[in-house]
Amino acid sequence: MTDHISTEHRSWNMSRIKGRDTSPEKRVRSMLHRMGYRFRLQRSDLPGKPDLVLPKYRTAVFVHGCFWHRHPGCKYATTPKSNTHYWHDKFTKNVARDTRNQAELRAKGWRVTVVWECELRDMESLAERLKKVLSAHELTYQTEDLTAEIAAEKHGEYAGYAYHAKKQ
To answer: Which fold has domain 7-141?
Structure first.
């Protein structure tokens, strides 16, 4: 089957596809923000420039389009009928790059989760999944000196002010 539009027009269409601040990405950002999570966008110092980075949870979130990133088993991960060799190569490279970037992030101690575009059709399920993923990965910090007192302790000292709890 041949393309219904000219090569120039197809090229123009493809040039308009954004690599960041896409509608699915904005929807995920909005949902996470409403849930109380704070994040950074497009951290260029991390492999693959994750769409969202939650440093507190040491988690990187990629928002992938099912078509471009080949969501396994998804009905939206179709292959165009024309120029199939080109598309097969392109999709193979995309998936290989995604796999490589995710492996590098994991090697650096980051947790990685992928949100697929088709998951946005059921935002409640997506919110539950992300909440479960993030709650399981909240970081806790330990000090070298386990005997150090913290502000919430009964006889601790905080910012120069002595705090002594009333004895009951």
So the answer is: Endonuclease; Chain A (3.40.960)
3-state secondary structure of 162: strand
User: In the 8-state DSSP scheme, what is residue 21?
Assistant: S
Residue 54 binned pLDDT confidence (cut-offs 50, 70, 90): very high
Question: Is pLDDT of 141 > 60?
Answer: no
Residue 56, classed as helix, strand or coil, is helix
The two structure tokens encoding residue 39: 């994040």
> How far does CA 133 lie from the centroid of its chain?
11
What residue spans of the chain are helical by DSSP H? Answer: 7-15, 23-34, 66-69, 84-107, 123-135
Q: How many CA atoms lie within 13 A of 75 on its CB side?
A: 0
